[in-house]
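Hey, I'm writing a tutorial for new members on how sequence and structure tokens pair up, and I'd like a real worked example in the thread rather than a made-up one. If someone can provide the structure for the chain below, I'll link this post from the tutorial.
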Amino acid sequence: MVMLLDTSVWIEFFQGAEKSKRVEDILKTEENFTSIITFAEVVNWCLKNNIQDKIKDYIEGIKNGSTILGLNEPIVILAGKINYERKRIEKDWGMMDSIILATAQIYNLKVLTKDSQFKDLPNVEIL
């Protein structure tokens, strides 16, 4: 199944961390997608980690390595429903995660993430 790369996976890749090789392999050999929401999360992560100078390079890296999926009405409606349901199970679940999951479901993609809050969901692979 084709992957939707979660923000946590991109951060792992940019850090050159332990599992970045798996991400690199996907980027080189497999069709993959990323939600436009990831841009906002990466910018926020860069600012929190005082690496503002990397923002443009990281966004370009995502655009060059993945097909970007925008938001549309079916995604945001499904995200609202997912968020309502997931908050009942995972109190720290956020709307960004709901948008990522909804995007994957609408496009029939498997989510690749490092986020353990996704662990009990179908069509999710934890990196």
